[in-house]
User: Fold this.
Amino acid sequence: MTLKNDLLLIVRQSRTIALFTVLVALPCLYLLSGFYSVGAEERGIVTRFGRIVQDNVMPGMNYHLPWPIESAQTLSVTALRSMDIDFTASAPEQLQPELTTGDEDLVDVAIQIQYNISEPALFASTTAAEVLLQQLAMAETLYYISANAIDQLLTTGRTSLQNHLRSNIQHAASDLQLGVRITSVQIRRLEPPASIKKAFDDVARASSEKQKMIQDSMGERGTRLAEARSAANRVRQQAAAYATTVLERAQGDRDYFFATWQEYKKAPNLEAQRLYLEKLERIMAPAQISVVQPAH
Amino acid sequence: MKLTLWLLGALAVGAYLLATSLVPVKETELVVVAQFGKPVRIIDEAGLSLKLPDPIQTASRLDKRVQLLPLSASEFVTRDRRNLVVNAFVLWRVVEPKTFLASVRNAETAEIRLESLANSEIGAALGAQALDAIFTDDASAQKMPAVFTKVTEASNRVALQEFGIEVVAVRPSRFGFPKQNLLAIYKRMESERDRIARQYRAEGQEEAARIQAQTEREVSQLRAEAYRDAQQVKGESEAKAARIYAEAFESDADYYTFVRSMEAYEKMLGKNTTFVLSTDSPILRYLLSPPAGKSP
Assistant:
């Protein structure tokens, strides 16, 4: 009896506590279960009976109506996500490892896509959004590679490939409402197949050899033309010097002639005789002279 | 006591009715309400909906999101009998739940049907194209995206009608030649690179030779021009000198000839000249016969 009495006493005494627990504490705990926090890099999505009612809850402490009415989900959105696609490494067994270019050559390609989540609600309500994105990116890469010649891809095509892929993948992702924003597409690798890389390197070498040959002969041409110009200049200067000499001498000779002639005119015979003897003297003095008596 | 029992019973029945007639629908799903097994209503709006309680009406849920179905790589033949290995993927979603449930019932069956549908459409579309319309370095003439758009449209038509499925896209993730062709392609690429390298080197030599020849030509032109100018200057100066001399000559021909001849003799004759003079010669007139003087 005493045990029963004791138990009854305890029940009677704890009834207030039990009542308090049932009527106040449990509902309070139930209501408190609706608090949730959204991290600095996250956004929250609140659904009420499955329907999305808030799709962009900002970071901080937030509240949703408790289960089963509403539920919340957080997604890391501001963080930049990246995805690597290596075509060569992921080739199926019966297929060539490289991609085929527009001129039916093969090229080894790996790209990296960087993206973030622009619309959390869309992203959260898509099946395997990232796998989808990868497949779409592969299709766009294929399309581009198979529409361009290998030389163009390996030289000038890189930047345009990146830009083309970024806008086309974005376009495809928007069409499917993946809720992602492609920030960039980087080419990790865009090379000829490893086994015949040597042949491609040789082409690059040949191209620079060609440039060198042309540069060398241009250099030689410069030197030779400069030499030729200076030689031509020398010839002209010499000719001018010669012309001056000839003219000056002619004028000198003429002046001399007229000066002596003036004298000569005054007494032609005498002057001629004198001049004749004077010259004769100058001509004959160094020469050898034999004088003979005519035999008559 | 009886009342409590009744109350408890009513509560249990009420809870059961509430639980089975309230249907929370997620954003990502479609709910098909069937009355005694026959589909009567489709709920495609997210949120809370009502139906008659089980077992009168039952709800079955279908994913309405876009599903990704990767196809295994298969070999196809183009119009010009070239083999291609294509790895494609299908994006699909349920749009007509009644048709879907009646024809394929679940996603697994749907995927098997879709795979064979997509493969046969790809085969038909590729079989109608020549290889050079698929791989081309002219992006505007490229048919590959168009081929897959056509495959998508054709598959969609059939899938929509037969399975209640919308085919959102069929696209390739890998596209190329079978592996057994690989060595031949590598060889072709290698010999093509060799040819290009040889061409570069030949072009380099040709260009260098052209520059050298042009240099040669310009150098001789420069020389010839200089010679021409020099000769002109010289000629002019000599002509002028000749006129100057002529001036002198015209004023007194005899005297000029005399003076000029004497000058010439002076230059022509020198040390090594031997004169043989007769005593009769006028220069030696006075040598042996002194002048007579004024007397006798």
About this structure: Helices of chain A lie at 2-32, 120-124, 129-145, 150-154, 157-175, 197-266, 268-284. The longest strand of chain A covers residues 106-117. The CA atoms of residues 46 and 72 of chain A lie 4 Å apart.
